[in-house]
Design a protein that fits this description.
Chain lengths: ~260, ~300
């Protein structure tokens, strides 16, 4: 099997300060990669470089496209990359308001990606949107309500539905449970785990919350000061961390 | 009327007119594409059609005959003041007869009478950006146009249907031009949308405050956006004109007396008058009182 995503030597500087340096890994179809570290560890910089939101200074992000096989998404044209980001890629933001249109109904939010790729049957779009609301445990009769009337947890679930409706092959998630109450987090994690399992999603999840990666990630990378200090199977890394920093992280000595 | 010597022909200096003409030519070369231009201060407030006035000033020639309509009528304050402005600054002939005009500046309507080759229709545009409703960032809407990312236009129509059960957008209804650029046709009623496409005349759109010009050359394809199961409909009030009996014209609903009696009349006053002159009589027109009704109608619309 060839990797879905192959990240090679991604490096990003902010002036003379290292954002992330020489990060490489492969992600295989159906795999979930967790990236953990303190704030400032470079995990968000790395995520944004991979997702095309930031221009790395060096490295390649090879994505196995449907039509042309592996392509470097950093050097591909902007129209191609934007097309990818509304079809085969999805990005779940930490703050739902960054990933939703707050002035548009829940159905319109979910339907936008469908319409962006050419869906032109109102009834079909609405049916798909309603199905997806139910899959993320939002009542179908909220389909015409604006997200502004939703709770934080509902907004985050709506953002997930809006991203998954086109059946993306790769989902980037930036602290998807951040900023939510603990009980709300648990429900969201459950939901995400179910979706990952049912859809066979490939995902890259950046988080400071080890409970999130414990539950969702097959593999784990630990980042510190822009470098990956340890990588391996999630259970291995969490139960038997080798690097001194990972040990600190796992023992919860660090307030991350 | 004669031209006063205080102004250059049609008010704007020749250099400014050349700059505007270049924007117009670019707009004609890329139908539906919004061309930025350096809008000038005009001796009238924004909202009075300064974009349209600048476009008219750039295309008018001394031999032109000029007509101005506002919501279909030649006699509203706005239409009269723009017509007078060009009578004074350009000394050109003006008319209210659609067929006699070579340049027609309009706000909110396309004349009922089909325009012909050699005529120019100049629209006053308040907001040129059709994507503005959902995406306020100019940098982003520009990118969406250049990459043909128009899914958002359908989100707007989707919202319409989800809220009202049908596409309730009845003015400024977006069109796709030659399968490429999505364009706001200015706040004309969607009844007029089918006339945008394949028109024999040149159509020029000027937005003064927003500093944009765009254009449809003659016989350009312009398709109103819609859904398969909610197709575009060029709707109008389901009545004949009370004055001339026309059943094919866009109608205004007006109150004609203190008891609140309503009637429907052609919004295109020239079209209605032409029909009445040709002997057509609507159900509510008594011989001789057509003038009175027209005046009351104008009061109603201006109010
Ligand atoms: Zn009439």
């Amino acid at each position: 099997m060839s990797p879905l995503l192959s990240v090679q030597n991604i490096t990003k500087y902010y002036g003379s300060h290292i954002g992330c340096k020489d990060v490489s890994f492969d992600l295989y179809p159906g795999e979930v990669m967790g990236i953990v570290g303190e704030s400032g560890s470079g995990k968000s910089t790395l995520l944004n470089c991979m997702a095309g939101h930031l221009d790395p200074d060096a490295g390649e992000v090879l994505f196995d496209t449907r039509t042309d096989g592996p392509r470097d998404t950093i050097t591909m044209s902007e129209p191609e990359r934007r097309m990818l980001s509304r079809t085969d890629w999805a990005f779940v933001h930490q703050h739902a308001r960054d990933g939703l249109r707050m002035g548009v109904s829940a159905g319109g939010n979910v339907g936008e990606r469908l319409m962006a790729v050419g869906a032109r049957n109102y009834g079909d779009i609405r049916t798909k949107a309603t199905d997806w609301l139910e899959r993320v445990e939002i009542d179908a009769d909220r389909v015409d309500d604006r997200p502004i009337t939703f709770s934080g947890g509902m907004q985050q679930r709506l953002q997930i539905a809006r991203n998954l409706v086109t059946g993306p092959r790769l989902v980037f998630m930036d602290e998807p449970t951040g900023g939510l109450d603990v009980s709300v987090q648990a429900r969201l994690l459950d939901l995400l785990r179910g979706l990952v399992r049912d859809m066979g999603l490939s995902a890259i999840i950046v988080t400071h919350d080890l409970a999130v990666v414990r539950l969702l990630a097959d593999r784990l990378m630990v980042m510190k000061d822009g470098h990956v200090v340890e990588a391996g199977l999630t259970d291995q890394v969490l139960d038997d961390p080798q690097h001194a920093y990972s040990q600190l992280l796992v023992s919860s000595v660090l307030q991350v | 009327m004669t031209q006063t010597s205080d102004y250059n022909f049609a008010y704007l200096d020749e250099q400014t007119k050349r700059m505007i003409r270049r924007a117009i030519l670019k707009g004609l070369a890329i139908p539906g594409y919004q061309v930025p231009f350096a809008s000038r201060e005009m001796p009238m407030p924004y909202g009075w059609g300064t974009g349209g006035v600048q476009v008219s000033a750039a295309v008018l020639r001394p031999e032109d005959t000029f007509k101005v309509i506002d919501q279909g009528a030649d006699d509203t304050t706005n239409a009269v003041s723009i017509r007078t402005f060009f009578e004074r600054t350009a000394g050109i002939e003006t008319t209210t007869t659609t067929g006699d005009a070579t340049v027609i500046q309009t706000r909110h309507r396309i004349p009922e009478e089909p325009l012909s080759e050699g005529q120019i229709l100049v629209y006053q545009v308040p907001i040129p950006e059709p994507l503005r409703f959902l995406e306020p960032r100019e940098s982003e809407t520009r990118k969406m146009h250049s990459l043909e990312e128009y899914g958002l236009m359908h989100v707007k129509l989707y919202e319409d249907i989800s809220r009202h059960g049908h596409i309730a957008t009845s003015y400024a209804y977006p069109v796709k031009v030659e399968g490429r650029y999505v364009m706001d046709p200015s706040p004309i009623p969607k009844f007029d949308n089918p006339k945008l496409g394949d028109m024999a005349a040149i159509q020029l759109f000027g937005a003064g405050r927003e500093q944009r010009i765009y254009a449809l050359p003659p016989y350009t394809n312009a398709v109103s956006l819609d859904f398969e199961d909610h197709p575009f409909e060029a709707s109008k009030a389901d009545h004949p004109c009370g004055l001339c009996g026309a059943e094919d014209s866009y109608l205004d609903e007006v109150i004609i007396d203190d008891d609140g009696t309503r009637m429907y009349v052609c919004s295109d006053t020239d079209y209605c008058e032409g029909r009445r002159a040709a002997g057509f009589v609507g159900a509510m027109a008594q011989a001789g009182d057509g003038e009175i009704l027209t005046t009351q109608r104008e009061l109603e619309i201006t109010a």
